[in-house]
């Protein structure tokens, strides 16, 4: 197996879990793995890599970082570059692929050795069709969250090199998202609401349930996002985000195919809907038939009690 | 300004795909097609850019001869002309082949700014836009939710796990468009009539060979059947018990 370069993201000094999973995926293939970080090379956890190369710079430009990663991949003779399938990784990977003049496989859910190359499994049509693909040459891939094991490493030797300052697009500012809550693409628990919530104000009930869990995000169906009830960043489904949390609550969501495509790989799905014939019950592991306005507040109290007693 | 909107003909989002007999792709017979969702946003931003700065909007796609339907849709909404890179094997082209063909045509058209959807809703790669920009040597901001162009300077915002990121760049540039950037307009009757007279150029593109080999495609595994725990608030204790002891997620 050829050498693999993994770009490891850090947010506010902390290594992103998604990147640790990407490292896990690369290591599972058996070849040498080299981590690349943007920063001084200090990382909040030891990376599971043979070596770490730190790109030292103060200004972030996706085109410049992509050029640096490509230069490292070429110098190392790497056959593949992996990034996490995050907003940052999905922005960088195609640029690296073009510089390496090879295909980019986005949002992969599995990797496997295939002769000397790598077979990538990736959902298409928002998960309605799963493709297994490989490249006839080099490959760049982004790897989906919650699909790969993160493995702790021992402290890897760090070498530094200056990041390129040949910028085309330059990051000038990062401001916190409004609300400051967990993003649906990261949260281990998602509490999603649809038309059945009847009124945008009733989403307060879902926010309360999410808060009771402590590590949950509020999601939404396309119908309520299009109606302006919720921000588009919360939309789960084919024209929103594809999610795979440990636990997904679909509340007042009938189960349109576009929505199901975005959440059907969740580990456990709970549906609450007043219509016992709703399509969502065919998908859900557990269902409760009834009025969400009554059930959700009671569920919130029960969750608080259960977690306090745990 | 010379503006290009890259668009794609994709299976309608309601499509429940079937696997083709060779097991290497989707069965394309009896499939309804539409303009990819995010490309509507890209086209809208292209038209707004023209309305602010003047110029011309070309709707560009790599697709089958039938993709003139999606180009006409763009012309009806306000694009001035269309370019179709005619390719009967369009659905089998990989990100690299497509990006290189589009980049070459963008150069031929003399474009100064290119808008793409953040991803096509069939392959979901979100790769062709930034790959094309890289082949062109242009600036690129992806998943854009806010954009302003002032002469040859651009400012764009995008959302990532880090927060709302602001970028500055110089034209020429490729912008990939995320939901929230604008509200796409519909084609009116006047636009539909006008579109019939607008030119569509059909070109047989020179394509590099695919590097991607499809090993196979499959339908996702069905979820095991679940169960209705009960009715109303009375079912809550049983639900929590199941989540704790059976599903082990609490």
Could you please describe the fold and organization of this structure?
The complex is a heterodimer of chains A (310) and B (250). Chain A has two domains: 4-162, HUPs (Rossmann fold); 189-309, TPP-binding domain (Rossmann fold, 3-Layer(aba) Sandwich). Helix content of chain A is 27%, strand content 30%. Chain A has eight helices and 18 strands. Chain A has a seven-stranded parallel beta sheet, with helices on both faces. A five-stranded parallel beta sheet of chain A has the order 15-14-16-17-18. A three-stranded antiparallel beta sheet of chain A has the order 8-9-10, with no helix packed on it. In chain A, strand 16, helix 6 (257-263) and strand 17 (268-273) form a beta-alpha-beta unit. The longest helix of chain A is centred in the C-terminal third of the chain and has 18 residues, at 292-309. Chain B has 250 residues and is α/β, with parallel strands linked by helices. Chain B has a single domain (2-203), classed as Rossmann fold (3-Layer(aba) Sandwich), CATH 3.40.50. A nine-stranded mixed beta sheet of chain B has the order 9-8-7-10-6-1-4-5-11, sandwiched between helices. In chain B, strands 2-3 form a two-stranded antiparallel sheet. The mean pLDDT of chain B is 96.
